[in-house]
């Protein structure tokens, strides 16, 4: 859904998502939101949730029950409506059309827990009675390779809009929305901290595509020639922004970095291997530097400003658990 500039201003949310008289959103506490689950069955086990969550993310079956089942039910109404609209249009046009995937965008800061949300949702949606084919793609595969970022002196801009091949991103989504078979999504490795050369995930006409990344709700500056340029979210049928107070995301980022020292960074192949052997204080200083000089700047300049574009905002509190939900009014 694309909003006009005045809508975005109207949609500007206070930091703590308080209820306001005039807002394009409905606001719910986690408890209120959980009631929308109705009779949606729990289709995940505690072990599966544990396997789906990222390092340092304590999401459990309680959180899935409280937040994700209602979200799954809401999304099923959106998917069903879009399928009905598709059938009606087919009759209206009296011609056969290829059905295209329902695309869900998931945005939010680095370290806010987007991947956990994306993986849990993908599993829940694929277990609907209709057994839809659900695929998940992350935008990090569309980052320029380190060789290009180094050449352009942009290694400390990783995650900023200019570090992504936005043309490739738009071509990918446009092919998906055109219903093309076997569309290739490039892959990224957090271990090598780089795009994996010649490694792709093939996306073959899923019913639902979840597209996750810090940049998915960003627009591009209008070119000087006045041409209208598409933006990634033009291809979305529904978008979610994962939100939390800055101080919390900061601590999640640093704590995750310190835990990665004990796990992934121990691997000599890891780009950050050198940080596994330095002192704890020195490693913490590195994590603080990466947070403040790159990820926090990016959050302020490019990620948080996109929050008012989301159809749904999940606001997490300490412990990563969702405390408030904002749902855009229709
Ligand atoms: N340096 C790293 N080494 C290994 N895994 C990492 C590293 N940095 C992030 N990850 C993992 O990559 C995934 C994506 O992280 P990130 O882009 O920060 O988004 P989010 O925390 O919102 O999912 C997470 O599962 C995280 O645990
Ligand atoms: C790869 C990322 C930009 C996240 O990208 P995303 O998957 O959201 O597109 C981020 O994990 C990152 O590497 N940030 C740069 C600074 C840092 O090393 O934390």
Please outline what is shown here.
With 330 residues, the chain is an alpha/beta fold.
In words, what does this structure look like?
The protein has ten helices and nine strands. The N terminus is likely disordered. Helices cover 38% and strands 18% of the residues. Strand 4 and strand 5 form a beta hairpin. The longest helix has 33 residues. The chain has 330 residues and is an alpha/beta fold. A seven-stranded mixed β-sheet has the order 1-9-8-7-2-6-3. Strands 4-5 form a two-stranded antiparallel sheet. It binds adenosine-5'-diphosphate (ADP) and the ligand CC(C)(COP(=O)(O)O)[C@@H](O)C(=O)NCCC(=O)O. One of its GO terms (cellular component) is cytoplasm.
Strands, helices and their partners?
Blueprint: H1 5-10, E1 25-29, H2 30-34, H3 46-52, H4 61-93, E2 102-108, H5 114-126, E3 134-138, H6 146-151, H7 166-177, E4 183-189, E5 194-203, E6 208-212, E7 238-244, H8 246-262, H9 274-277, H10 280-303, E8 312-316, E9 322-328
Parallel strand pairs: 2-6, 2-7, 3-6, 7-8
Antiparallel strand pairs: 1-9, 4-5, 8-9
Bound molecules: adenosine-5'-diphosphate and the ligand CC(C)(COP(=O)(O)O)[C@@H](O)C(=O)NCCC(=O)O.
The ligand CC(C)(COP(=O)(O)O)[C@@H](O)C(=O)NCCC(=O)O binds at residues 110, 138-140, 158-159, 213-215, 290, 294-295.
């Amino acid at each position: 859904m694309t909003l006009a500039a005045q809508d975005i201003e109207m949609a500007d949310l206070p930091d703590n998502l308080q209820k306001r008289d005039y807002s394009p959103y409905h606001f719910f506490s986690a408890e209120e939101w959980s009631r929308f689950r109705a009779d949606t069955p729990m289709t995940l086990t505690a072990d599966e949730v544990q396997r789906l969550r990222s390092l340092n993310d304590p999401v459990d079956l309680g959180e899935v029950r409280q937040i994700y089942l209602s979200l799954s039910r809401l999304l099923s109404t959106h998917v069903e409506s879009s399928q009905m609209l598709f059938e009606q249009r087919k009759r209206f046009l009296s011609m056969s059309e290829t059905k295209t995937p329902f695309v869900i965008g998931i945005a939010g800061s680095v370290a806010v827990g987007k991947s956990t949300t994306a993986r849990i949702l993908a599993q829940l949606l694929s277990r609907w009675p209709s057994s839809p084919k659900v695929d998940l793609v992350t935008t990090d595969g569309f980052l320029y390779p380190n060789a290009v970022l180094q050449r352009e002196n942009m290694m400390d801009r990783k995650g900023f809009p200019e570090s992504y091949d936005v043309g490739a991103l738009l071509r990918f989504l446009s092919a998906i929305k055109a219903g093309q078979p076997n569309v290739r999504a490039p892959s990224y490795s957090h271990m090598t901290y780089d795009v994996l050369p010649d490694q792709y995930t093939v996306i073959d006409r899923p019913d639902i595509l979840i597209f996750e990344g810090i940049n998915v709700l960003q627009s591009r500056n209008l070119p000087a020639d006045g041409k209208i340029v598409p933006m990634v979210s033009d291809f979305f049928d529904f978008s979610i922004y994962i939100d939390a107070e800055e101080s919390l995301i900061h601590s999640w980022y640093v704590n995750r970095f310190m835990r990665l020292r004990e796990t992934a960074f121990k691997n000599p192949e890891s780009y950050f291997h050198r940080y596994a052997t330095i002192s704890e204080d020195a490693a913490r200083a590195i994590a603080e530097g990466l947070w403040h000089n790159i990820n926090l700047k990016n959050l302020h300049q490019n990620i948080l400003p996109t929050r008012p574009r989301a159809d749904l905002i999940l606001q997490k509190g300490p412990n990563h658990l969702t405390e408030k939900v904002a749902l855009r009014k229709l």
